[in-house]
Design goal:
alpha/beta; five-stranded parallel sheet; 5 strands
């Protein structure tokens, strides 16, 4: 099975971005590229060669679903899973995110000590 090593994290809130980066790098041992916007993610996704993308839903400018629509033009989301991170997790919302091609949804606020394990579990299930 492929090993999960590199994560592209897209989040407009600087404090959430910082907590997630520390949680994924220090606790999870991953290499993380943090992007503050969908456009920044699109500009960097190919150079970073990410294994998995964590994508905020609510962002100014290009939101998560719009970013995902653009990412699928440059990345094979069957081999690079996209996971939304959001507080908007009513069943119809989650169903909508999954219908866009997201592999899963991580609920915000997330537990920094559990984030790496949540991501690893999603990764394992995507590569079965």
């Amino acid at each position: 099975m492929l090993k999960l090593e590199r994560i592209l994290h897209v989040e407009d809130d600087p404090s959430i971005r910082a907590v997630a980066k520390v949680a994924l790098e220090a606790v999870g041992g991953f290499e993380v590229l943090s992007c503050s916007s969908g456009q920044e993610a699109l500009d960097n996704v190919l150079n970073f060669a990410t294994d998995l993308i964590l994508l905020d839903v609510m962002m100014p400018g290009m939101d998560g679903p719009q970013t995902l629509a653009r990412l699928v033009e440059v990345v094979n989301i069957n081999s690079v899973p996209v996971v939304f991170m959001t507080a908007k997790v009513q069943p119809p919302e989650v169903e909508y995110y999954l219908s866009l091609g997201a592999r899963d949804v991580i609920i915000k606020p997330f537990d920094p000590m559990q984030l790496a394990n949540q991501v690893r579990t999603i990764w394992s299930l995507s590569n079965e």
